[in-house]
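The protein record quoted for completeness.
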Amino acid sequence: MNRGSRLAALVVLVWLALPLAASAQSAIAGVVKDASGAVLPGVNVEASSPVLIEKSRSVVTDAQGQYKIVDLRPGVFSVTFTLSGFATIQREGIELTANFTAAVNVDMKVGTIEETVTCRARRRLSTCRTRSDAMC
């Protein structure tokens, strides 16, 4: 085999391997519980990374507190867990390799309740009338 044939064969092999590398998808999965060990359904779980086209992907925990974010590209991820009434938890530096599922289980603690009250002042329009119907 001459040098040109070897180079052509190498190019063909690399070209054939590209779809395999692109389909090498990973996942992040786990269980979310509270401080007492009870499972927490309804927790918003968001995975973010620059390797994602959409920059982040979200799921919600099921009735058993389980979640799974699938079809993630290999790379480094940050995962944020949020639920009203609980402190937000963020896990950073989760490295996914090809065809790997990272287990990220968390215990959420009760957080402080924050409330925002917005007041808008309105101009008070009041009129009073005297016996002579004149405005005061």
Observations:
- The CA atoms of residues 21 and 98 lie 8 Å apart.
